Amino acid sequence: MTANFPVRGPVRASGFAAMAAVVLFTVVGLWCVTTDQGPRGPYAADVVAAGQTVDTESVSNTIVWGGGDSLVPAEVTCVVTTRGGGTEAIDVATTPGPRPTAPILRTGSTDEPPATMVVLAEMSPLPGTDLTCSGGGLEAFALGELRLGPPWWVVGVGFFVLAGIAGVWALVTLNLTRGRRT
Asked: pLDDT: is 1 or 37 the higher one?
């Protein structure tokens, strides 16, 4: 006993859907590969004047941002202070590679901190610590959260692989289900 299921229509439709997926995956992959890889800037509400103390417990993996008209990042001093009184300097001078910059994300604040800030350092804060930064022409600083996960270009390559798989599916299904020529 054999069942006669009409599968040609749904399989052919999946081939056309796969063709559309190829276009979609390719566009998204190109967007991911060409997107800026820099970190997101700090919010205007998080920006404080140089020399002030900031509690580091609010963020897990932290980027220290700094801004100022005459900022020299290598001359900035940032110090982590524990609530018990111990201090530890953060190495700002030897941040490898070019320092990323980002605009400050505004949320309707009337205060006008510097328009863009530069990465001074990355750190993993400890519970019960405060951060103070000053010197080197620093006018203001802020803490921001470091984005974790794969870089965007890796995600883009994943979409290209998906586009290839969808393309093979489209070719196979559309060739197998095409009408018979007489």
From this structure: 37
DSSP assignment of 109-147, as one string?
-S----SEEEEEEEE-PPTTEEEEEE-TT--EEEEEEPP
Question: Which of the two residues, 41 and 175, has the higher pLDDT score?
Answer: 175
Return all residues near 32 (Cβ < 8 A) that are at least 6 apart.
152, 153, 155, 156, 159
Task: Summarize pLDDT for 118-127 with one digit per residue, the tens.
Answer: 888 877 766 7
pTM: 0.60
